[in-house]
Design goal:
The longest helix has 18 residues. The protein has a five-stranded antiparallel beta sheet, with helices on one face. The chain has a four-stranded antiparallel beta sheet with strand order 1-2-6-5, covered by helices on one side. A two-stranded antiparallel sheet has the order 3-4. The mean pLDDT is 92. The radius of gyration is 17 Å and the shape is globular. By secondary structure, it is an alpha+beta fold.
Length: 203
């Protein structure tokens, strides 16, 4: 067992990060592989994510997961809202019975520097003048988490996801596609991983 981090947000919402040290057989004894994934490591990440859903909520019907055209996994009856993310040897999930959710994890890597103008608007770029790789990776992970929370695809990260304030543990902002929704997103660093997550209603 390799639960790396677990957090109960409220009685109906939990998240967890799994450090993948097991081989594929460990997960296949506990969860099913519903679609063909040829790359061995991606398959392992996928299985770890499904196992973690069940680890957080033992009655989670992982065998009923479907994939939308936007690639968002979902349950038809929406008994649970959930989001999954992978990077390296880690899988992260957030699950809620009440709220739309989104989660993302990223390894700290200088590669994100080369794409910052594709996902940050001019205001957000000014925040980075006196900061480093951690802040940049946090903003990237946060925008990915909002994108997954929305789940509808076709989102312009610069125009539709606007952050107003970045604190040490939270980011406040607005989602501007099809109206305006204010949100507060949570983030933290764990070793060389940035975790960002969001749970709120989509109104």
């Amino acid at each position: 067992m390799a639960i790396f981090y677990q957090h109960t947000i409220n009685p109906t919402t939990k998240l967890g990060v799994w450090h993948i040290t097991e081989d594929e057989s460990f997960f296949l004894e506990r969860v099913t592989l519903q679609r063909e994934i040829t790359h061995p490591h991606k398959r392992l990440q996928h299985l770890a994510g499904k196992y973690l859903l069940q680890h957080l909520f033992p009655d989670f019907p992982h065998h009923l997961i479907q994939i939308a055209d936007t690639r968002k996994p979902f349950l038809l009856n929406e008994e649970y809202h959930f989001s999954i993310s992978h990077c390296g040897n880690y899988a992260a999930v957030i699950v809620s019975k009440d709220h739309r959710v989104g989660i993302d994890i990223e390894l700290l890597s200088p590669k994100v520097e080369s794409i910052k103008h594709k996902f940050l608007n001019t205001v957000e770029l000014t925040w980075l003048k006196n900061t480093g790789l951690q802040s940049l990776t946090t903003l990237w992970s946060a925008k990915e988490a909002v994108f997954k929370w929305f789940g509808g695809g076709d989102v312009d990260f610069r125009e539709h996801i606007c952050f107003d304030r970045m604190g040490s543990k939270t980011i406040s902002g607005r989602f501007l596609k099809n109206g305006e929704i204010e949100f507060e997103l949570h983030h933290e660093r764990m070793e060389d991983i940035i975790l960002a997550y969001l749970y709120t209603a989509l109104v």
